[in-house]
C-alpha cells in the first residue's frame, strides 16, 4: 500500500502492526552529569514504564485527581511550572529525548513537585495502549516539531487518526490544548481539530493563550521580534 494521506486514513491506529509515520527523530544529544544522575535516581521514583494495559492513574499518582497528558514536554520547564500552578491536577508527561527527561526529573526534585509522572516512550503507543477512553481531563501539545518542509509534513503529530484517539480518551468537557509558532502548522491543526466530530472549538478560530501556559524564553524572544504564536483549545462535546 502506498503511503499517502488517503491510505493512512484507512490504517487502524488500534492495530499494533500499523501506526502513523513517527513524528520525531531520536536525537539524544549530550546529557549533563546532573541529567544522567536525575534520570538514574528520579525515574524509579517518578517514571512509568510502557506496557500494554490501561494505566491506573490513582495508583500511579497515589491519589485520585483529574489527569492531564502532555506530549513532548521538551526540557520540562513548562510542565513543571504548570504542575506547580495547578496542584489539584495530575500531569503525565511523555518525551523521547533523554536530556529532557533528565531535566524534568531534576526540576521535580529541586522544586519538590509531587503531581508529575514521566514516561520516556513513543506517545502514540502510550495513548493507544495505556490511556483508557473517557479518562483524561486534558491533553497538552506545545510546540511539536513542525516538520516545515512540505515533503515532511506527513510526519507532523497532529493528524486526523491521532486526534481521533486523543478525543476518545477525553472525558466530556475535557480539552486538547495545542500551541505552535509555525503558521502553516497552526492552519493544519485548526483544520484537523475542527474536523473531529467529538470536539468543539472553545474560541472563534485560534484561542487566547490560557494563563496557565507560561511563555518560554524562546517564545518570548520570538514575540518581541514579531513572530506569531497560535494557541488552539478544543473541548470534547458533552
Summarize the structure in words.
This protein is α/β, with parallel strands linked by helices and 238 residues long. It has one domain (28-236): Rossmann fold, CATH 3.40.50. It contains 9 helices and 7 strands, in the order αααβαβαβαβαβαβαβ. Helix 2 crosses helix 5. The model is unreliable at 1-18 (pLDDT under 50). It holds the Pfam family Methyltransf_4. Pathway: tRNA modification; N(7)-methylguanine-tRNA biosynthesis.
Q: How many β-strand runs? A: 7
Radius of gyration: 17 Å
Low-pLDDT windows of residues: 1-18
Succession of helices and strands? HHHEHEHEHEHEHEHE
The CATH superfamily label reads Vaccinia Virus protein VP39
* Category by helix and strand content: alpha/beta
Could you give the order of strands across the largest sheet? 3-2-1-4-5-7-6
CATH fold node name: Rossmann fold
So, CATH architecture? Answer: 3-Layer(aba) Sandwich
Overall average pLDDT: 88
**How many domains make up the coordinates?**
1
Helix percent band: 25-40%
Distance between the termini: 37 Å
Taken as a percent bin, the fraction of beta residues is 15-25%
Q: Number of helical runs?
A: 9
Region (Interaction with RNA): 151-156
EC number: 2.1.1.33
GO molecular function, one term: tRNA (guanine(46)-N7)-methyltransferase activity
Binding site for substrate: 149, 181, 216-219
What keyword list fits this structure?
238 residues, globular, disordered N terminus, Rossmann fold, 9 helices, methyltransferase
